[in-house]
Amino acid sequence: MQCSPLKSVPCLPLMSATRSGSCCQNVGCRTSTPSQAAEQIKAAAQKSIPEVGRELAELVEQLVDIVRSLQSQRHLPESGPDNEGSTPSMSMSSSGGVDLSLASSKPVTSNTPERKMRDILHDLEEIQKKLRENFTWKEAFEEQPQAEVQEAPYSSSCPLPDQSHPAPKSTSRFAQWAISPTFDLRSHSCSLEVSKDGRAVTVSRHPQTHLGGHERFVTCQALCSQAFSSGQQYWEVDTQHCSHWAVGVASWGMKRTQILGRTQDSYCVEWKGTSQLSAWHMVKETVLGSDRPKVVGIWLDLQEGNLAFYSVADQETLLYECPVSASSPLHPAFWLYGLNPGNSLTIRPIRV
């Protein structure tokens, strides 16, 4: 097997165990002391991290090929060290911050050339692995901030935000159309109770069976008092404290035995609690994915006849939109199903 020669790169003192006490003559490498090899590695580390990574990885790959070639000539196996002792593991570090230290060192119990080469091969393979891990990560780390700076330049006098604590959501682009609807006390199910400010609805631990009226939902649903037949409105619902929910709009004429989204006059997005988010309108389900939105923004544009749902906890992301008809006034509508006591939905204030 012919080894590719190294390009004036000093070899580590790996071949000291050969009969001649020097490197293999057919690979074209010259001898050097361990300190010289370490100094050259440190000097190379002053270059850019990607460049150093490529050069060191190439060097180690060639050294691995050399040792394997020598093993083949001596008819030795290429596997790593066995359970017996061997030479101490190699440990290197560069000023560029790359840690090439191996997990542990091994006591010396054998000085045979075969064992030394086998241990050297093992150490080189470990170094090769660490190089790949270190420089792959650092290249990605260096490139990412550059892309972010191009998209959002910042002043050197302003510190970068702490990525472990995301910045609060900025003002909504729908803020000028924001409303804060309140729950209607006539329509909500007997299994629900409304907060004093009228902006939260909770599955009650003690159903209020004494409440009656033909306008009250049989299922665990509720409408808001406000109704819209024109204009543009926007509101947000905090869904974090409800395991199964649906939010949307419905006409007051929706039958109290029917389910939100399963009628011609109701629309919603729905979290089933089984890692599935769906949209319902015109009695048709559209599966949206498996990500659960913590806060849902609802944009009702009756000028254009459009309804849109957004995930808005951290940033505004469109979930679903559909055409909507205002032949009958539409109310904000909610469904908390599963009858889990304590589950709640809250209409939250919007940053303006």
From TrEMBL:
The protein depicted here goes by the name E3 ubiquitin-protein ligase RNF135 isoform X3
| CDD domains registered for this protein in UniProt | SPRY_PRY_RNF135
The UniProt regions of compositional bias labelled Low complexity, in chain numbering, are: 143-152
Q: Which GO terms describe its cellular component?
A: cytoplasm
| Gene Ontology terms describing biological process | regulation of innate immune response
Q: Which InterPro entries match?
A: B30.2/SPRY, B30.2/SPRY_sf, Butyrophylin_SPRY, ConA-like_dom_sf, E3_ubiq-ligase_TRIM/RNF, RNF135_SPRY_PRY_dom, SPRY_dom
Record domain B30.2/SPRY: where: 161-352
Which residue ranges are recorded for the region named Disordered? Answer: 71-117, 143-169
Q: Which residues form a coiled coil?
A: none
GO MF entry, a single one: ribonucleoprotein complex binding
Q: Where is the composition biased (Polar residues)?
A: 102-112
Keyword terms: Metal-binding, Zinc, Zinc-finger
Q: Which Pfam families match?
A: SPRY (PF00622)
Gene name as annotated: RNF135
